[in-house]
Structures
1.
Amino acid sequence: MIQIWNEVQYIELYRAEGEDAILKLNDPALLRQECWTASGWTGAKADFAVTDPATGAEIARVPKMGAAETETAIAAAAAAFPAWAARTAKERAKILRRWFDLMSEHADDLAVLMTAEQGKPLAESRGEALVSAETFRYQAGLAKTSTERIFPSNNPGETIRTVRVPLGVVGVITPWNFPILIPAWKIAPALASGNTVVWKPASNTPLLSVAIARLFADAGIPDGVLNLVLGPGSMGGAIVADDRVDGVTFTGSVGVGQGIRDVVTARNGRVQLELGGHNPCIIFEDADLDMAVAAAVSGAMGSTGQKCTATRRIIAVGNIHDELVDRLVDRVESLVVGDGQDADVGIGPLVSPGAHKEVADAVAQAEAEGAVAVAVNSQTPDGPCFYPPTLFVGTTDLTITNEEVFGPVSTVLKVDTEDEAFAMANDTEFGLSASVFTNDMWKIDRAVHELQAGLIKVNGPTTGSEIHAPFGGEKNSSGHAAREQGDTAQEFFTRTRTAYIKPGSPH
């Protein structure tokens, strides 16, 4: 067990300066101002603020770690690997199952933390916490399934056998938009397969990361098996460059991901990337428009558009364009935007003022290039992180219809034919997700085979996936990286060894 030698301090999270209301947790011990490695709960010489994007209020301060702390974490993971890899799958699965139980028990508290520092509505936050917990239960079950295969040999009496062995030390670098789910996708199969982990989460959501580490400690994970470091992006660079880190799994921007790929592959490490998308939603004339409109707006505006699978382009085929736009406008204007702590809010703030500026700049550029905003949500409150859900009509010549905008913004494009629709959908450097709305089985079959995307939805939004099915993209969305989720997740975190076994002669 990890020895927690620092006293747990109750951190009060105020909604705004001067208010008396405090976000109270059922388990105040989830709130810590420390990082976690084999040396226990530790602080740092410097710290940084965590702010509530809905109010701009500072809610806590956490350690800003550096090179020394990162070195300690990597060394701890390397030292812990042989013993953790030697444990039986049943032993590792038992700890992961215990973490599932603790996550489920603390789902309400984790949701409060997520909404406080990331901004998404409370119900959405709780849903993410529960699905993340299920990911650990699923991967715990897979840990106890056979990873061996037997092949016939051309040599009499010989058997060919393959086994999977853990990769080693894995660097896990995760974003802020899904601060529990994406870490779960990576950490669960990594640990289940016998690897140790150095985890660098985004700086926007550190409180949640610390809470997860606390639950791992409570689940009984051995010293050094999971190490959490908090701080700037340069710490991720130190993890990526270290020869002791056998593999790096990263979700984030294209530029950063490509840089990680270059560094890791140059030292013969293994890399897994999920980088972004510019996802199309094709709506044909025979579509159920009620279903299509609901899914298109949900896909574009849900989570404030801060999803790599968000719908960026809505492609209207044939004569439905005008009616479709009218329906989309009504739906966008009816969205309830506000503080995610309010029960009736469906769309929260962007994660930071910097994110708000990036979206605002992209929208201004689109308007300068000739895009027409047909819907701008008028119910959006003022504040440095609130951005009104916005719907454009435009053309493929716009920057916004070619480059990812990480916010509640989407554009309707018009085409006349099926061929044009598929060509437009594929006309992007990304290939993460796509959706089509039609009842025509020929169009459905064509979509499955011709859309250049790793995730294809038929009569559903571009967003969303299930933990038992593979997830990943094509082109610049993921490259040739191994898929996440499902039983394919183990492929990245293990090495395959092939043994030719022939009994010796009896004496």
2.
Amino acid sequence: MTSNSRLRLLLFRGLALGLMNTETINTEVLIIGAGPAGASAAFHAASAGWDVMVVDMFDMLASPRDKTCGDGLTPRAVGALEAMGAGHLLDGHPEIRGLKLHGFGGSITAPWPAHSRFPQRGSAIPRSDFDSRLLGFAVDAGARFIGGMKAVDVSSCGRRVICRPNIKDANQPNLEIHTRFLILAEGVRSMIARKLGVQWLRGLVHGIAARSYVESARADEPWIHSHVELRDSDGVAQPGYGWVFPLGAPTAGGLAGDGPAGDGVGAGGAASTPTPTDNTTTAQPHTDNSLLTPAPAPVGQVNLGCGALATSERPAKVNTKKLLVEYANLVRDDWGLGEPQRITSALLPMGGAVTRVAGRNWAAIGDTAALVNPLNGEGIDYGIESARLVVDLLSDAARNPDGLTHMWPARLREEYGDAFALARRLGMLLTMPGLMAAIGPVGMSGPLASTVMNSAARLMGNLVTPEDKDLTARLWLGAGKLSRGVDRLFAADSRPLFGATMR
């Protein structure tokens, strides 16, 4: 036997051994990522009768992961949850009435506007809690979930997708998950998304942000506060904003936003009861209440953070974590703040600025598809919505030779294209040095400040839809169509929207 023959035999034996030690799981719809987008997709697919499996590198039901996020839910997000029958997941968490905007010499209250599609209220809930609750809701609807497993490879075989998660235990067999459709909901840095050609376009506007949890005496405040005058240590106004999202009073045993979902145990641990310093006696009931020292009232938490816009040509020259600390100092007295805890930071693609969002039998949703408002970084509502939209296409995609390849980007452009095209153009303008300092006083303290900022709050809350016919909506969507037209004419190749040349 020649050396080449022996080598081929060894390779054959190795392949055969590998196949013998491979476990195969079959499903109709595989979802990678168990955040709001992935869990919502799992719910909708299971409710539609599909066999669904969700895989996440974290065991989101037992130990949800933390995520850089403002924790706020717009009325659009609340409406999407209620349409799923999941409105009860927000029970016990604050109802948010709207925004209070501050900066450049003015303060404006902007209630959420009435809308035919959305309720007139938002909410705020720590992501670790929200993600776990929503995933549990999907599992209750019939979805299967495997936690603690990261998808590392993917291949296509005919009209099937084979996904290979990592297996760290050498005693466990290799695993292959065979699926008819693959939905990517793993976020910005998804390895599988990159293997399928999804790349983030940094030449267009993207966001940088930092977030913390802070004890506050005003955790029950029913308004989100946004400070649009955000200055660095040199006093330079940044193209971004600071936020305070009240998370409500602490639950029994602790503070919001810490520990496993639903346990209510915060960073400070369970509420303690003062113990006597005298080991020989204990206090006896006393009729004079003035002599009793009341226990301190429990302190709730707020999500406090800041974000800025940037492009590859005009990167944000600011350390967001340091900026967050400066912002906390700015609002400390007003909010009765403690020290920021659990500070995290992240980068976000925005406005559909990715090279690709779909193939024959796969689609990207949520943050993976850059479904993020370029004006404020909001994306939870888009993630929940896109989950329903993509599941609605699966039956037609199964009968179409091209599957989701063209259907999905076309659906995203139809739903969000005009708004995103305009918002990301405005976001890029805001990165120009000195622009915020120039326009900020006009928007916040000029004669039309209230009208302008109420409209801005509506846009920041993602509360304009293609069906709206009021003046603000017509102006916004009309400008969006114009923006897309400019892109098609002058920059089709450099400004793709959801992965395809603008059209």
3.
Amino acid sequence: MSLDILFIHPNASKKIYQGLSNDHSAIEPPIWAGMLANHCRNKNFNVQILDCEVEKLDYLTSVQEIIKIKPRIACFVVYGQQPSASSQNMEGAIATSEELKLSDPEIKILFVGGHVSALPNETLTNEKSIDFIALNEGVYAISNLLKVENLNDEKYLNKVKGIGFRNKDNQIVINESEIIVPKKLLDIDLPGIAWDLLPSLKKYRTAGWHSWSNNSDKQPFAALYTSLGCPYTCSFCMINIINRTDSSENISSQDSNIFRWWSPEFIIKQFDYFAEQGVKNIKIADELFVLNPNHFMKICDMIIERKYNFNIWAYSRIDTCKPEYLDKLKKAGVNWLGLGIENPSSVIRKEVHKDAFKNIKIIDIIDSIRNAGINVAANYIFGLPEETKESLEFTYNFAEETNTEMVNFYSAMAYPGSPLYLESKKKNIILPKTYSGYSQHSYDTQNLPSANLSASEILAFRDKAWNKYHTNSKYLKLLESKFGMNAINNLKATTKIKLKRKLLGD
């Protein structure tokens, strides 16, 4: 039987993460590739998945595998499980698709994901190797396209909702948008991840800090969504751009802040599968897991009832993480909560529409989480629009004083699909010239300047702050007391890796 579609998770890990890619960055299952594959399979199409990252395939060997499989459509899935990942994953996707188009032009190339949904016209204009793009999340668009027998016949292509392509006159055609999968149909039309089409979960690995105590415990690793989207409108985030049903040029993620979730009864089946496979480390990739208690508390109840022994990492906002939730989260195995603090100053957060918790003492929430036995991974962003040298120092000092079990320091970026991207374009601010430039860890990363500081000043501060935090004695004592010397040794191996930065003259 010929293959209708091959879903491809591209690989550009060395360019995106530099030296961290060897042993220190996570290798996460391609959730969206797995969900799209399952959707199409349920529509009776013949599908496969090729995870180039986990199989350690470079561009040339990826193409060799694709040609060997010979799909009708090669679909590059350029989603990501954090805001930057879609644009940075374009790096490997484009390099591979260009080589594929040269090697076998008969295979049609389709792209789906946040970046192409944010910039459909620009993507088709700049990237000649791409035959089709799927707009928004692409679920129905892809199965619509697969129904077309002749993929060169514009008469039929023009009728396919939710796609974009170039016609025979080389003009870009963006068809009427398709709907996103409604909440009531998530269990049916996005019925989980096609785990059987992916490599063994033993090949995937979690982030080092998620398994501080024992580096060998990083594998196997699984990840899943229990919900999609986010009801909030933070200016630096583009996660909601895949919800768009309007392909106008100036639409941002703020215009499509939709939140949907699968039923707890459906989700628990995924956890059952993980338990059967001997998986302990699990990432709940939801933008906000701790948001709707009728959803996440029921999932916790079911996990507790089954007496599973998971090590779960999930995300919350400061203002959604209520003390009354914490004991149950801990009992369910949620040992890590990622908190989007971004900046301790409500004034700076207000500039990016994240000031809802201005009257909440951040430290009190962190203390309540840790008192419940849950570790905190605190996320901070340096270089938001009104940032000053003094506010950078204030944020770092706050992080050091708080001394959470893990911190992530980011530089503010203009991710395509975010309001900050549109604002930066209007102001003619320098944006990344490459896809890898959207990566926080790449050589050519191009973060944003603030009103008071240059991009290079902010990046230099971020890199120094990261190293300073993870080598200070107070933090090391915390790590040793909670996780032992293995954690210290694993951390030291990570801090020895110096990221080279073009912006800093490396």
